[in-house]
Amino acid sequence: MYDLHDLVQMKKPHACGTNKWEIIRLGADIKIKCTGCGHIVMMSRRDFEKRLKKVLGHVE
């Protein structure tokens, strides 16, 4: 699955062109941060799991 500070790839790319996001909050809602422009998005866990393509790894 996924954990805090994991890099994930979503199905659709962000407007800045990057498709990698870092998970910065876990709970009923999940907050992710774009690795390209730094934009932060918060969505429900259900929406996140529906839009998730794959887990890329852990941020050091």
Automatic annotation (TrEMBL):
InterPro entries in UniProt: DUF951
Xref: PANTHER family: DUF951 DOMAIN-CONTAINING PROTEIN (PTHR38455:SF1), HYPOTHETICAL CYTOSOLIC PROTEIN (PTHR38455)
Name the record gives this protein: DUF951 domain-containing protein
